[in-house]
Design a protein that fits this description.
Chain lengths: 339, 332, 296
């Protein structure tokens, strides 16, 4: 049990499908992942791989035409030591609302549209606090000031009563992080937090998130497509393709011993600074398939150089190639199969 | 590139957009998107232009293409050894110039008219440029599609039936139809996924080799630019701060901004201890540029002189490497 | 090369605008829109084929049969001059539908051309046209129409012209705003980079993309013009009273005596106008749902 408390979030066999045009399309398929307390888990993959849908399914922020099912989604709170079964809660019930924001904070991709342009940023940050703790506005403002100071927003006393359009992109993203952080949640889910920002600003935001993880022992789920960010930020990595976790392992497992053909190909296709002249990037042939057209078997089969007939027959199980390093590929069928 | 032949010579190019305010729309200031940029482009090379959003790199591309009318300076283009200033072209000359220089845009999703079949979108530029017989047009269309590995019968589809990578390949193919000498690529892969990015980049390299094209490769991602380019231009707030050979820029970045930019890029390798230079603050608005060197409020090496005198782009150790920074000022 | 062309044509057939088929299916599934479409089609057909449906001349006065209530001989009775109301409604539909549809089409056309120019070129031309449309819009429409009728005189053609002059502003504003947004699209820049003529970019590239809201607003305008025609004719400034239109038929119902004793004289044309306007509105709504790309 004590061992279990290490994992602040434990997701087993989460599946999500969307119903569109009377057809059910599976977007997330049997995703299992665990987030260790005080670490960063990076969920990496290309657009349409289901990485955003996965975390949105966990916090149950889904549109009406989505169907979510899971063996379990457990959140273990450090504040009261209790286990919460997120999968059994009503999406917009009181319990779930209490957890969102207070225990699980979220940072979205586009800081421009995450803030309401007609309210002062200070009020927007304070709102979560007032909602969840019922404290007075003046108290909340004080906490917001502290948070702004902590997140390195210069001149917080005057900035607090500014409107979003008076902030630059990087500063807006800091405000969004402040909103996510204000109730002191255990988990921060950051969905492509720097994609809309410049590299030098991205560096600032990433330093900030790292310091939140190290100094405040936050657990972070970082959703990104940028392998560079993964290498700098993550402790554990979850590589997704077409709704499936293709490979899951520690940072070292993924970067030094990438096992799934997709992970290998992905790492080879990223341009790295300082490549020697004439060195070619590796490419993944073909195009990302449409999730509605996928046949049985491995999702990557059509683009995989190692594809065999048996890859296309049935769902590929997870193999544990080394402790905590799971791969969904039949190349590793000599290893222990885990569910 | 033994004998380097110039194809473009850009002299003091200036593109200021007026900022109008109030009822009478009085001009209250200027966005100095491109401010006094001088640049040589050689035949057959890939010149990378890199910088953060708002540094004027896209505007520079569009101004060279004459999609904006520059407010000052000259752009000389090499017509078989004769340099002509395209900023003074008549509309007929400009129309002919369009065959020499083409552009690939950032967003492949809006670069194709959603209501038109690819066939129509490919046919129109050829018709405009006087390829009158249908057979000839279809021959050209087939040829360019072969170059980007797209089957000719895809021409009869609508844009929404293609993925982002395919669309960008189509856009490249369409630009090649008029047999340009120069291709200006404005963030051609930034809207694409990583695995598709590599496909398109490699394809562009191959096309360049086959056709002997000159590329102006504009992007915000230094690692992509470095992969593609022979030389790199670094821009900050409408000015060039450094020009160098792509290898030299990586090995020995001179300008403090280039160094910060290089260090800010996350590298997909682990166990790499690197020192990150974080520039404090944010890029100022191009309407209110700081006096002197534009970087001075954020620069870790700021000196008294930097606040007053704008440094000029000078050769470093008399080589190809050029930098605009007082740290390397040879004179005074 | 010919084999190549045939490959193109084969593929063309296979791919024959799946978009269009999807849109048609969507429209057919919209029950209200289908009802609207059917009503519109029926009314237009009966108006066009009026001579086949009735043997009466709509203008033939037969004082011996005046104010007959509906019976087998006169399906919808006769008016105070003994003219057959059924025949008059059928023939009247010809003029009313023609005037409103033509008015809406012409108005949309003018609005589209001016809107394209204002939106694409911007600057002084844009400012001038926007001010002009504002002047037209702020002027009370009915008075404007009456002034124009007074200047131009009565008549079917003049009424179309009047509707065109008073109805171009909504389309103009819509097209202009769409153009402002679409001018920045990359495909427009691509065309400019190829040096295509401005008129071609405007009308061949951008305009098709703004067509769907224009079509929808045109249907709404048709409904509005039907009503305007009816009220103008009722006021005696529309189509000359010798020509049967739905408004002119209603004109007979000006007196209290008619309203209270001869219901068929006002209920029938009134009902037809209401049904037609409703049907057109339903049809327009359905079209909007189908054509609006944001709802795809």
């Amino acid at each position: 049990m004590n061992n279990n408390m290490d994992y602040v979030l434990d997701v087993k066999n989460l599946s999500t499908s969307f119903i569109s045009d009377r057809k059910e399309i599976r977007i997330v398929k049997n995703v299992s992942l665990r987030l260790r307390r005080g670490t960063t888990l990076a969920v990496v993959g290309e657009s349409g791989c289901g990485k955003s849908v996965t975390v949105h399914s966990i916090v149950k922020l889904m549109p009406k035409n989505a169907k979510v099912s899971a063996d379990h989604v457990i959140y273990r709170s450090a504040k009261d030591g209790k286990e919460y079964r997120l999968d059994q809660m009503e999406p917009f019930g009181t319990e779930m609302r209490k957890l969102r924001g207070a225990e699980i904070g979220m940072v979205f991709q586009d800081p421009m549209s995450s803030l309401n342009p007609v309210y002062k940023v200070g009020d927007q940050v304070a709102e979560g606090l007032i909602q969840h703790t019922g404290m007075s506005k003046a108290e909340a403002q004080k906490q917001v000031l502290d948070m702004f100071r902590k997140l390195g927003i210069p001149d917080p006393e005057s900035r607090i009563s500014d409107f979003p359009h008076q902030f630059s992109g990087g500063m807006k993203q800091r405000v969004v992080i402040a909103i996510a952080m204000i109730c002191n949640p255990d988990i921060i889910i950051a969905d492509e937090p720097t994609t809309a920002l410049d590299v030098t600003i991205q560096a600032q935001i990433m330093e900030l998130m790292k310091s939140l993880q190290v100094n405040d022992h936050k657990s972070i789920i970082l959703i990104t497509h940028n392998m560079g960010l993964v290498a700098e930020m993550a402790d554990e990595v979850c590589v997704m393709y077409m709704g499936r976790v293709m490979e899951f392992g520690s940072l070292e497992d993924i970067f030094e011993n990438p096992s799934h053909p997709y992970t290998q190909a992905l790492l080879r296709s990223v341009p790295v600074l300082g490549l020697a002249e004439g060195q070619e990037l590796g490419t993944i042939p073909g195009i990302t398939p449409n999730p509605a057209d996928l046949g049985p078997g491995c999702e990557f089969a059509d683009r995989c150089p190692f594809c065999q007939d048996r890859c296309r027959q049935k769902d590929i199980p997870r193999f544990e190639v080394s402790p905590g390093h799971y791969v969904r590929c039949l190349k590793f069928d000599s290893f222990q199969e885990v569910d | 590139m033994a004998e380097k032949e110039l194809i473009f010579q850009i002299k003091n190019l200036q593109m200021w957009f007026p900022v109008r305010k109030g009822f009478l729309r009085k001009t209250t200031g200027h966005v100095k998107a491109v401010d006094d940029v001088s640049l040589d482009v050689y035949k057959g090379e890939t010149l990378g232009i890199v910088g953060e959003s708002g540094c004027g790199k896209s505007t520079l591309g569009k101004t060279i293409m004459m999609l904006n009318t520059p407010t000052g300076g000259q752009v000389l283009f090499n017509y078989e050894g004769q340099f002509k200033d395209i900023t003074k072209f008549t509309s007929q000359e400009l129309f002919q110039f369009r065959k020499k220089v083409q552009m690939v845009f950032q967003d492949p999703y809006s670069a194709l008219n959603p209501l038109k079949k690819i066939y129509t979108a490919f046919e129109e530029p050829l018709k405009v440029h006087g390829v009158n017989s249908k057979e000839e047009r279809e021959k050209i269309m087939e040829d360019v599609l072969k170059m980007v590995n797209i089957q000719p019968d895809y021409l009869l589809r609508y844009p929404h039936e293609f993925s982002g990578g395919q669309r960008q390949r189509l856009c490249i193919a369409r630009a090649l139809e008029v047999r340009p000498e120069v291709l200006i690529c404005d963030e051609p892969v930034s809207a694409l996924d990583v695995s598709i990015q590599a496909q398109v980049l490699n394809l562009m390299k191959k096309i360049q080799k086959d056709l002997g094209l000159t590329y102006l490769f504009i992007a915000h991602d230094l690692s992509v630019v470095q992969y593609m380019s022979n030389r790199i231009v670094v821009m900050y707030l409408g000015k060039i701060v450094e020009i160098a050979d792509s290898r030299a820029l990586y090995d020995e970045p001179l300008h403090p901004y280039t160094r910060a930019l290089l260090s800010a890029i996350p590298v997909p390798q682990i166990h790499q201890e690197k020192k990150r230079i974080v520039l404090p603050g944010e890029v100022p608005s191009p309407i209110r540029k700081p006096a002197g060197c534009a970087l001075h409020p954020r620069c870790p090496h700021c000196m008294e002189k930097c606040k007053q005198v704008d440094p000029v782009l000078t050769r470093y150790k008399d080589g190809e490497h050029m930098v605009a920074c007082h740290l390397y000022g040879a004179e005074s | 090369m010919s084999s190549q062309t045939s490959v193109f044509e084969q593929a063309n057939k296979k791919h024959a605008s799946s978009l269009l088929r999807k849109n048609i299916r969507k429209f057919v599934n919209n029950r209200l829109a289908m009802i609207g479409l059917i009503c519109v089609v029926v009314i237009v057909f009966t108006a066009v084929f009026a001579p086949l449906l009735t043997s009466y001349d709509p203008n033939k006065i037969s004082l011996g049969e005046k104010n007959t209530s509906p019976c087998m001989e006169h399906l919808l009775g006769t008016d105070n001059l003994g003219r057959d109301v059924f025949a008059r409604v059928l023939y009247g539909g010809r003029v009313s539908v023609f005037v409103s549809v033509m008015g809406a089409l012409m108005g949309s056309l003018v609005g589209m051309v001016l809107g394209s120019m204002a939106g694409y070129f911007g600057g002084k031309l844009d400012m001038l046209l926007v001010r002009l449309s504002e002047i037209f819009q702020t002027f009370p429409e009915m008075i404007l129409i009456m002034i124009l009728v007074a200047i131009l005189g009565q008549g079917v053609g003049n009424l179309v012209l009047v509707f065109c002059i008073t109805g171009w502003m909504t389309t103009f504003r819509m097209v202009r705003n769409e153009f402002l947004a679409l001018r920045g699209e990359t495909y427009v820049q691509v065309c400019e980079a190829f040096g295509m003529p401005k008129a071609a970019i405007m009308f061949k590239q951008i305009l098709p993309n703004v067509l769907s809201p224009v079509i929808v607003s045109a249907t709404v305008n048709v409904a509005g013009f039907i009503l305007s025609e009816a009220s103008l004719s009722f006021l005696g400034v529309g189509v000359p009273s010798s020509v049967p239109t739905w408004g002119n038929i209603l004109n007979a119902a000006k007196s209290v005596e008619v309203v209270s004793n001869y219901w068929w004289l006002w209920a029938v044309p009134g009902g037809v106008i209401s049904i037609f306007v409703l049907a057109i509105n339903f049809f327009g709504d359905g079209l909007r749902d189908v054509l609006d790309p944001k709802q795809q």
